[in-house]
Amino acid sequence: MNRREFTKAMLACGAAIPFGITRAAGQTRGGTLNTIIQPEPPVLVTALNQQQPTLTLGGKIYEGLLKYGADLKPMPGMAQSWEVSPDGLTYTFKLFPGITFHDGKPMTSEDVVFSCMKLLVETHPRARQNFARVASAEAPDPLTVVFKLKQPFAPFIGCFDCTSAPIVPKHIYEGTDYRKNPDNDKAIGTGPFKLKEWVRGSHVHLVRHDGYYLKDEPYLDEIVYRVIPDAASRALALENGTVQLVQWSDVEFYDVQRFKAQKNLEFTTKGYEYFAPHQWLEMNNRIAPMNDKRFRQAVMHLIDREAFSKRVYFGNAKVATGPISSKTRFYDPNVKRYEFSVDKAKALLDDMGLKAGANGKRAEIKYIVPPYGESYQRAGEFFRQSFARVGIDLVLVGTDMAGWAEKVGNWDYEMTQNLLYQLGDPALGVARTYISSNIKKGILFSNTQGYSNPEVDRLFDEAAITLDEARRQELYSKVQQILVEDVPVAWTLEIEYPIIYDKAFKNIVTTGIGTHETFGSVYKS
Amino acid sequence: MTRLGSAAAIGLQAISRIAQLVAVILVIATFNFVLVRAAPGDPAQVMAGQSGASDPKLLDDLRKEYGLDKPYFVQLVSHLGRVVRLDLGYSYRQRRPVVDLILERLPATLLLTVTAFCLALLIGTALGALAGLAAGSVLDTVFTVLSLVLYATPVFWLGLMLVLVFSVALGWLPPFGYETINVQLSPVAHALDIMKHMIMPVTSLAAIYLAIYARLMRSSIIEVAQQDFIKTARAKGLSGTRIVVGHMLRNALVPVVTVAGMQAGALVGGAVVIETVFAWPGLGRLTFEALLQRDYPVLLGIFLILSIVVIALNLLTDLVYRLIDPRMTTGAA
Questions:
Q1: What confidence tens digit (pLDDT) does each residue in B2-11 have?
Q2: Which of A255, B5, B40, B217 is deepest in the core (most CB within 10 A)?
Q3: Whole-number Å distance between alpha carbons of A457 and A482
Q4: Beta strand pairing status for A32-36 and A222-226?
Q5: Nearest Cα to A516, choosing from A162, A79, A147?
Q6: pLDDT digits (tens, 9 = 90+) for B217-252
Q7: What pLDDT digit, counting tens, does each position of B182-196 carry?
Q8: What ipTM goes with this model?
Q9: Dihedral sign, Cα of residue B150, residue A228, residue A250, residue A283
Q10: How many angstroms separate the Cα of A398 from the Cα of each of A311, A371, B171, B289?
Q11: Cα A481 to the chain's mean position, in Å?
Q12: Model confidence pLDDT, tens digit, residues A165-202
């Protein structure tokens, strides 16, 4: 079935129904879902802030033109259909009729053009990079949007979910200072839920948007996001039923196992396919001994990543084989494998001349522990023990979020741990870590380790503008082989965050963005 | 000196005291600014970092918005200018005036900390006094061991254990928060609802204060009991009750008031650990989160208010001393 046939089939059903959504008889209107938001977002407008909690909560309030399934293929969002010209330059979206903002005003193609081309390019770093590729955006009629690109950009169709391109009301934001707009507090979107109350430090209360354009949706009357800052307290809240859903790192990995056994709860690791959180040990390639490829290869051999997954993440992770996650597109498993081998690590270190001194130590390296929860602390301890096996003293250095961001962003570190989302396509979420043009001092989540390889740059550039999928796979396979040989960072795990929820709730996970989704189809049985 | 002249002298003295106070507050405000800014980290970096994506434009925009693009000295002068105008500034991170953020959290904080503090002070001193009066008895030993255990118990652990027992196992008390969300209640029912939510956090917080005051009061009573004026009182034939109430307690309370005065300043700052464990929307959490985010205006605003409260409480403690112990007023006039 091609895209057009798919859309027709959906429309023939009376509504564009995303895959995986239960439409069995018996789904009922009403009910409240209590869940957690942590840390508390500074603002709910996802166009202005893209922290993970902001996206989780804002995903119920703001929508995008498309959604993406677990296979990362596009599905209707506010756009009921779309067409891409054969040259890959023109993208035409047809919107559903009758979409309204929470203030009752209609949402039209003008709002889409304004959001993507004016507001998001100002406030949303990811969207800025994506829409900078657009030569023109037009709204020929209220339900049609046409984007014309300067040159083909293969993953452009993957840039329209509610986290990447949330649509905001033009009538509220046009001509204003977007960040200081007083209506930011009202968080007016088109989503199935609207803001009723936000008691800072306590909870955010969403209620159903009665004018929602999809028939019968939303089913729930309310969603209450509770701010519970302590991880142990969050686990207790799930255990005693105060909340019925936890996501991302709401509960620590060591608590996950016992919740799996709790009979009233459902457990899944689905719903993270778009983000595909990919974790690595980051090494500053500018500093000795990390500037030697052999050292970095030795690090790959040194870490028993199976044990790392089991002991630190309690099995909620899969061993990463290279820069691209197996959960995203263009992953190639046929790359060099670094099995756990202390002897091979030692041989590589000896070969590069990093031999033990009089004190029996080969080197002392400072490792900054990322301040993002207990797992990171445990990971640091695990690495320290791993490195000790070959006489490398890993000195763990603690810091807070601000300190970590400043040190890593400004390349003032030797080793640390990092985790990035793959964002549905290597051109969007992977290339940024390895291409030379993204070595930017002061900028987090850029090529902070300072790896540079002209061939890698060329391959990533070509793959981004190539439309033929087979050719893209070829290019990305090649880039994976080179990177796995060069080891700019030591990939450790594909983290499988859990989603744990009360079995009474259905359709919690319906797309590749999981609990960031709108929840219009979620119902309580 | 004429009456007019005397009034003018008092006026001048008052003006001089106020000027002194303003100077102290400005020095503290400067010190706070330097201290907060000395910590490594940049709020724009933190915010960009948490968004999982960043570029130079985002950082520039955020720094401009936060006023961090201006020279350090200009930022300091503008901060002091705001302090003089009693303007606490604006949190660009939370996109709200700092005074609103503080006022919104203050009631919950004061309710928690003041209740815990008063309970601890009353019960702690009473228990301490009883133990002290019965020094060496079984009662004293029980009190001493109990207060030692309470003093040594980590407050977060006690909080979590209370939740486990009274919420998870027995289901008697709400585990978190300040009030039941999403229900319409009459004012009386609402007050009762808040009280129900307060029981566990107040108990956890009061436990440690209670232990401190009980131990302090006990040793203070024992010390006072050995003073000569107590012996004199006994020799004069005063009744036991009169000696205890009129002489021992008043004197033994002095060190307790000193410690209470010092701790009272912290009440406004909230109780970070308890607020975190019980998801209590207080000022302690706001401060801690602002610190992590390097939300300078919020931090400086809270620090300023705390400084003023501490100064005021120091004055109040002096007054209370004089009420308890008239000797302290000697020569003061």
A1: 556 667 776 7
A2: B217
A3: 11
A4: parallel
A5: A162
A6: 998 988 888 888 888 888 888 777 888 877 888 888
A7: 777 888 998 999 999
A8: 0.75
A9: negative
A10: 21, 7, 39, 18
A11: 24
A12: 999 999 999 999 998 899 999 999 999 999 999 998 89
Note whether B69 contacts A: Cβ–Cβ < 8 A.
Answer: no
Q: What ranges in B134-186 are assigned the alpha helix state H? A: 138-152, 155-163
Q: Where is pLDDT greater, at B268 or A327?
A: A327
Query: How far apart (Å, rounded) are the C-alpha atoms in residues A385 and A394?
Result: 8
Amino acid letter at A487?
A: V
Report CB contact under 8 Å: A42, B93: yes
Cα A10 to Cα A68, A76, A419, B159, B306, distances in angstroms: 15, 9, 37, 53, 61
Pairing relation of β-strands A499-502 and A144-149? unpaired
The residue in chain B having the minimum alpha-carbon distance to the alpha carbon of residue A403 is B41
What is the structure's pLDDT at B329?
A: 57
Is residue A25 within 8 Å of A125, Cβ to Cβ? no
**B85's tokens:** 């105008």
pLDDT tens string B77-101: 988 988 888 888 888 778 888 999 9
Q: Within 10 A of A412 (CB to CB), how many other CB atoms are there? A: 12
Q: For B65, which residue in chain A has the nearest alpha carbon? A: A179
For residue B54, give the nearest of A201, A232, A444 by CB distance: A444
Q: How far apart are CA A42 and CA A51, in angstroms?
A: 9
Six-digit token pair at B329? Answer: 């007023």
- The residue of A50, A246, A282 whose CB has the most chain B CBs within 10 angstroms, and thus the best one to mutate to test that interface, is A50
- Secondary structure (3-state) at B264: helix
The whole-number average pLDDT for the span A10-30 is 54
The model carries a pTM of 0.85
The answer on pLDDT for A412 being more than 90 is yes
Interface of A with B in 195-214 (CB under 8 A): 199-203, 205
Q: Locate B117 and state its tokens.
A: 């503090």
The answer for residues whose C-beta is within 8 angstroms of residue B169's C-beta and 6 or more apart is none
How many CB atoms sit inside 10 A of residue B157's CB? 13
Phi and psi at residue B70, to the nearest 5°: -85, 160
Q: Would you call B51 an interface residue with chain A, using a CB distance cutoff of 8 Å?
A: yes
Mean pLDDT confidence for B149-166: 90
